[in-house]
């Protein structure tokens, strides 16, 4: 257990710059968004006339419509939370793809594992360190979105503002788990990051355009973004969606762990296509 916590602490320290950068960035964005609502509310009449001239498809793409855009949930979804899973997924892809394989491709992982740390302690220490970093980023973002609520006419309290961050965290957790698993299956970190990026972007666009076509709607249901929820009440959360996505994420982490336990550590540049999860490496 001590080895796990040592690895976790090291991982957190190595990510402190990213935690501050992403957390402060999202927090400042939240300050701006809440203040922007006051400006828009003061010009609501003119805004409604302008929105009435927008094509319905344009608003629907961003998850809004003329009737809900100035409601708290509708405003926050259209101007903030609809894009946050895509923005923060950059962090999840970079960190998830390099969680194990980064040290491996640099030729350092075999030296680290040579110490009495243990593969499981190393794996879960790294992974839990990333989870702690994600929690820190989301906490800083929530604080930023909540700071001006007391002086805002948005009509949302700090507890309600936390609810969409729960769904956002599960989305980012999914992308970290996906990229981590792909990084241990595919020949290189870069390939895992590219494939994860394609999944993130296609998930957003297909889910956003699903209202236009029944076939797209069917495809969107296998995409993670389809299950992202911007609601302000815990009772409005679809817990089946939330825990299903979380369960799939945990399963991918377990598969990645099994793969890490049963594979040889590659030296730099030794990528290969191997999908044997449960077979231990052959010993000479």
What features would you describe in this structure?
With 284 residues, the protein is an all-alpha fold. It has one domain (2-261). The protein is built from 13 helices and no strands. Helix 1 packs across helix 9 (119-146) and helix 2 crosses helix 5 (72-81). The model has no long low-confidence stretch (mean pLDDT 83).
Brief summary of the model shown:
The chain has helices at residues 2-14, 16-42, 44-52, 56-61, 72-81, 84-98, 101-105, 109-113, 119-146, 158-185, 189-209, 214-220, 239-261. The protein is mainly α and 284 residues long. It has one domain (2-261).
How would you describe this structure in keywords?
single chain; 284 residues; 69% helix; globular
List strands and helices in order, with pairings.
Elements: H1 2-14, H2 16-42, H3 44-52, H4 56-61, H5 72-81, H6 84-98, H7 101-105, H8 109-113, H9 119-146, H10 158-185, H11 189-209, H12 214-220, H13 239-261
Beta-strand content bin: under 5%
The tally of structural domains comes to 1
What is the mean predicted local confidence, pLDDT? Answer: 83
The class by helix and strand makeup works out as mainly alpha
Helix content: 55-70%
Cα distance, first to last residue?
A: 31 Å
Give the C-alpha Rg.
21 Å
DSSP helical segment count: 13
Low-confidence regions: none
Number of strands: 0
* Morphology: globular
Secondary-structure element series? HHHHHHHHHHHHH
For the biggest sheet, the summary is: none
